[in-house]
Amino acid sequence: MKGWWGRILRVDLSRKKYWVQELNGEIYKKYIGGRGLAVKILWDELPPGIDPFSPHNLLVIASGPLSGLPLPSSGKLVVASKSPLTLGYGDGNIGTMASVHLKKAGYDAIVIRGASRKPIYLYIEDDRVEFRDAEDLWGRDTFETEDKLVKEHGRNIGTLLIGPAGESLVRYATIISMKGRSGGRPGIGAVMGSKKLKAIVIRGTKNPELADEAELRRLSEASYKEILSKENYDFWIRQGTMATIVWGQENSVLPTMNYREAVWDHYEEISGDLMEKLKVERRGCPYCNMQCGNVILDDRGEKSELDYENVAMFGSNILLNDLRKVATLNKLADKLGLDTISMGNSLGFIMEASEKNLIDERIEWGDYKAAQRLLIDTAYRRGLGSFLAEGVMRMSRWLRNGAEEFAMHVKGLEISAYDCHAAPGMALAFATSPIGAHHKDAWLIGLEVKMDRFAYNEEKVDKLIFLQRIRGGMFESLTTCRLPWVELGLNLDYYPKMLTAATGVTYTINDIYEVADRIYALIRAFWIREHDGWNRYMDYPPMRWFKEPLSRGPYTGAKLDLEKYGKMLNLYYDKRGWDHRGVPRRSTLVKLGLQETIPVLEKIVGLED
Fold first, then answer.
1. What residue ranges do the domains of the chain occupy?
2. The CATH number of 240-417 is which of 1.10.569.10, 1.10.287.110, 1.20.1250.20, 3.40.50.2300?
3. 28, 226, 264, 329: which has the highest count of C-beta atoms within 10 A?
4. CB of 547 within 8 A of CB of 531?
5. What is the pTM of this model?
6. DSSP result, 11-54
7. What pLDDT sits at residue 532?
8. C-alpha–C-alpha distance, residues 196 and 497, integer Å
9. Contact (Cβ atoms closer than 8 angstroms) between residue 475 and residue 92
10. What CA–CA distances, in Å, run from 114 to 19, 88, 159, 201?
11. Which residues of 445-472 are buried (b: 16+ CB within 10 A; e: fewer)?
């Protein structure tokens, strides 16, 4: 086997045992790696209906055949588990040196089960695995923890670790690496915390055998060179994703006041233009020549790495119009191990709940001190912070009195930073994302603003499925960053060629589409298995976008149409080979080679042909 190691490291924290599992090549051909390998493992091995905080839940850390190789933006890993936030399939990708070292250590994935009685961390060096005491690390933030681990093991390591939020089982705690890289929005850090696993340290010294190393080197050099030649490269290096603040304002999609509005008078005070003037440093993931991490000094004088999502969610979404203060909230979230999108969403929700007198506490829009206090209290589950730690879906169900209509989530995962009052295609993208409302699988809004904004048509559905196949299927299984293609237009043809050169298995783009469709169908099967009473309304965006029109900006009066959305969702299902409930048809499962799911789904919901 080439490109893949064909080896998975299995770890049982309860018994302090580990072993290596050899996999045959067929599973790799069908799922490639990363997300595909992760969901296959979770489907096959998790007992249905398991509590995500049970020792029997699995934590999967999976790379792809291109992960960690000297290729554009390849320093990525997928972290996956059953989500404590959504109770469905949860994953995230993270840019980290752990990707490079996992590849060099000789594993395609690490699968962790069980739970330690006391805090520990794993030290993995090639074929050696050690269970090390982490009592001294437990309770420390992610930056302190990384410093301690580097002092102990040297700089030539990869780390994956959690902060106090993961230890406290905050349902949207993430895994952190390299002091600011974050992954696993649906609470994968909390799963790690439930296992008393503070960190994973990886050092590898081996190189995988590649099918055509010379061709892969040629493709690498050509693609790196093409990235540098792109017209938008210089502007990207200056602003990265932060340019989206101005773009979001101009296109009326900037989340404002918990997605009540889509424009904000003070957008310039948190914009990429201002960030450029304040920038002191730029950071990136391994093997990236288009680094997107823009660093400014926050209002305490500490370095904080910004991108669009965290600035919008801690800025316009809660009406905080000071970029340095936004940067402080972002830095705190990274140090504590909190997802910035869900945290910003939860702050917006609780501010609106206070405005509507649904809670006793008075928390005003834009109250920086209150936001800072609540963020810290959330990480430690103190006072009202313990309520926020549950996420907006659970908070709204407990508050009732109409709170569910302004709880901005899909399937329990808080929506990332794009308002969709005037973007039905992006609303569908959020609603059908395989992990809950997230933009990474299909940033359709970038295309939608150039189309008929209010159309509910076949063209948008086709583009959505294409983006899901590429962004959520190909990039998440290879596993590499999507931004060279998304932001700079790197030729998509490079990727199947790189995959073929690495593995010796010939892949066309159509082959990758089929793998992507298989991954999406299996993730959907997982959701149906884990959620008693699955129904199509789990694929609907929040009711706010249907019931409360925008009152400001160029699309004043805009809101989504419930009937038209339902018809567009039906079209999406039909093109995916799923029935009107969003359940894959029996014929689709057979076509995709997912026969093992048929008896399970037949018993739960019944299957249509």
1. 7-203, 240-417, 420-489+508-609
2. 1.10.569.10
3. 329
4. no
5. 0.97
6. EETTTTEEEEEE--HHHHHHH-SHHHHHHHHHHHHSPTT--TTS
7. 86
8. 41
9. no
10. 14, 19, 20, 18
11. bbbbbeeebeebbeebbebbbebbbbbb
Cβ contact 67:99 at 8 Å: yes
Q: How far apart are CA 254 and CA 263, in angstroms?
A: 6
Angle between helices 509-530 and 494-503 (to 10 degrees): 90
Residue-wise burial string across 192-222, b where 16 or more C-beta atoms lie within 10 A, e elsewhere: bbbbbbbbbbbbbeeebebbbeeebeebbee
Query: What tokens does 332 get?
Result: 């705190």
Identity of the residue numbered 596: E
Q: What is the CATH number of domain 7-203?
A: 3.60.9.10
CA-based torsion, 522, 526, 527, 533: positive or negative: positive
- Which residue has 């067929």 as its token pair? 26
Q: Where are the alpha helices (DSSP H) in 362-457?
A: 368-380, 384-388, 392-399, 424-432, 445-448
CA distance 240 to 12: 40
Return the CATH fold of 420-489+508-609: 1.10.599
For residues 479 and 64, the answer to whether their CB atoms sit within 8 Å is yes
Sheet holding 303-306, edge to edge: 281-283, 293-297, 303-306
Collapsing DSSP to helix, strand or coil, 196 comes out as coil
401-439 pLDDT tens trace: 999 999 999 999 999 999 999 999 999 999 999 999 999
Q: What percentage of the chain exceeds 70 in pLDDT?
A: 100
Tens digits of per-residue pLDDT, 141-198?
999 999 999 999 999 999 999 999 999 999 999 999 999 999 999 999 999 999 999 9
